[in-house]
Amino acid sequence: MQLTFQGAAREVTGSAHVVRVRGRTILLDCGLFQGRRAEVAAKNRRLPVPVAELDAVVLSHAHIDHAGRLPFLVNAGFRGPIHATAATRDLCEVMLADSAFIQEKDAEFLRRHKKSADEPLYTIRDVSTTLTQMVPHRYHDRFEVVPGVWARFTDAGHILGSASVALEWEEHGRTQRLGFSGDIGRSGLPIIRDPEPLTDLDWLLLESTYGNRDHTSVAGAREQLAAVVRDTVARGGRVLIPAFAVGRTQELLYDLHQLVHEGKIPAVPVVIDSPLATQATDVFRENTTIFDDTEAMVRAHNGDRGALFDFDMVQFTPDVEDSKAMMRKQGPMIVIAASGMAESGRILHHLAHSAGDPRTTILIVGFQAEHTLGRRIVERRETLKVYGESVPLRARVEVLTGYSAHADRQELRRWLDAVRATSPRLADVFLVHGEPEAQDAFAKDLTAAGYRTTAPEPGTHVTR
């Protein structure tokens, strides 16, 4: 077996890991890189593996940093199967179309303002072709990826349909197993089930996004959200939340619904200003059978206020004109808009409009990769670059780690320890999807605990 780490190696975007085994080539994920536009543009236009060599793709989940280059791969001529869970396939239908649309609109905007712009990586037609190649599977079902190599998905607890992957094949007279964690979620969140550890592995690729940090508790995050909303409304301001349209938005809606119902926040408008989030929420409504068996499930089936994600103050603005009308309104409101790292989408227009207003709060609820606009907001830079224009940052900035969809250091360690408990032959743990500081700290902790741990650099080849 040979592994090549072609993305999310010493960084957290562009997930792409090449597995060569039994004369076949399998790609684990094919995600977009995010960060400095000039740098990621070049990286995104490099295929992780020549199309002529690639036999199949196994996709962990639908987030764009894991799935966002699939249509580019298809555009380059890949015609093999793309294996995923059924919910991941449903979410990719809306997320990849949205990605193509945003690329086209961003290029048009930059050209209209006489700024240089690359051609989009792919088109809606490429997305449609990609979807025809996606093969859906249920959790725990064993399926053949390529001749002689089998796989199973287990619930990673990260977003709807997210999966950890175990590949297995016969070699040297016994079964060999390679695990890929995908992105591991948190325990105790509503809607999404708790992550399930992989079992009986020889090698493991493990995400390490928060390998050096611990989160606020889930309950504590909800109380912090309430406090931010109350304080901002008292100032007469807006709460702007850059949020991933899938997972984070639905969790925030659920908690805001509960907080309003309990009287812990004022009844102000809650605006979901993202066509993708609107469509993704519909996908959630269609996949309640894989929700966590908690209050979320009870509410979904009781039909309280019509649906889990709907309440009196919430409004979705899929149309541009509705979005513009909402932006012109005066008074406090909560605005949730993609993208989660503020690199694209309607959140940019809200930042241009309100980041200079000291009554505004920009609420960061997820990981912000290096060189993204979201990271610059977290760093509280004096000015932000939005569509090439300088915008003063006078808004308050609050960061709530409790809403992260990624496991923290302790949660990752518990998941890994559960894997080791069933894996007496576990030899190597390769850390992926993490920045160097987080990976180095986590690798040190794991090595001290008896794991053989490395954090491969981009392009590293490993043979076992």
Strand content: 15-25%
The CATH homologous superfamily of the largest domain: Ribonuclease Z/Hydroxyacylglutathione hydrolase-like
Envelope shape: globular
Distance between the termini: 5 Å
Rounded to an integer, what's the Rg over CA atoms? Answer: 21 Å
Question: The CATH topology of the largest domain, please?
Answer: Metallo-beta-lactamase, Chain A
Count of structural domains: 2
In the predicted model, the low-confidence regions spanning at least 5 consecutive residues are none
**Would you tell me the structural class of the helices and strands?**
alpha/beta
List how many beta strands DSSP finds. Answer: 22
* Average pLDDT number: 92
| Fraction of residues in H or I helices | 25-40%
> What is the CATH class name of the largest domain?
Alpha Beta
What is the strand arrangement across the widest sheet?
A: 6-5-4-3-2-1-22
Total helix count? 14
* Biggest sheet architecture: 7 strands, mixed
CATH architecture level-2 label of the largest domain:
4-Layer Sandwich
